[in-house]
């Protein structure tokens, strides 16, 4: 059973790395186009498209929820055995914190935009 779980873990990590590379490529390409595109066109395509906004909010909420769930699991893990043998564990914990912080900052920016127009 542990070999099967190890295989799933390795495959999911490899796929995560591939998806991260694809995501970084898409972000880079979008940034290049963004710089050349009128802000009014971007506003019209993104903010006047309710389906686009709803889909993006779903992705953010789902990602944030899964990351928060992982953080809860990590806290439970640390409460059972608080021994940290590998410094990379601290790095992973810090990265998890930064990801949550960035999601909260993004949500706050949206909050400011929406509250200003309520």
Structure report:
It is a single chain. By secondary structure, the protein is mainly α. Helix 3 runs antiparallel to helix 4. Helix content is 89%, strand content 0%. The chain has 4 helices and no strands. It has helices spanning 2-36, 39-47, 50-80, 87-116. The chain has 2 domains: 1-36; 47-118.
Major sheet description:
none
Whole-number average pLDDT?
A: 87
Helix segment tally: 4
Task: Give the CA-CA distance, first to last residue.
Answer: 54 Å
* Binned strand content: under 5%
Number of strands: 0
Shape descriptor reads extended
The helix/strand series, from N terminus to C terminus, equals HHHH
Helix content: over 70%
- Derived from helix and strand composition plus strand pairing, the structural class reads mainly alpha
- Low-pLDDT stretches: none
Number of structural domains: 2
Radius of gyration: 19 Å
What's this entry about, in short?
The protein is mainly alpha-helical. The chain has 4 helices and no strands.
List keywords for this structure.
2 domains; mainly alpha; 118 residues; extended; 4 helices
List the helices and strands and how they pair.
Blueprint: H1 2-36, H2 39-47, H3 50-80, H4 87-116
Helix pairs in contact: 3-4
């Amino acid at each position: 059973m542990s070999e099967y779980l190890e295989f799933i873990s390795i495959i999911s990590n490899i796929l995560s790395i591939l998806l991260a590379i694809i995501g970084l490529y898409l972000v880079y390409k979008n940034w290049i186009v963004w710089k050349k595109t009128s802000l009014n066109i971007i506003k019209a395509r993104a903010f006047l498209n309710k389906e686009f906004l709803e889909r993006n909010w779903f992705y953010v909420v789902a990602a944030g929820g899964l990351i928060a769930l992982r953080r809860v699991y990590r806290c439970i893990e640390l409460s059972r055995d608080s021994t940290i043998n590998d410094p990379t564990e601290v790095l992973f914990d810090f990265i998890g914190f930064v990801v949550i912080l960035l999601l909260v900052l993004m949500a706050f920016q949206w909050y400011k935009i929406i509250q200003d127009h309520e």
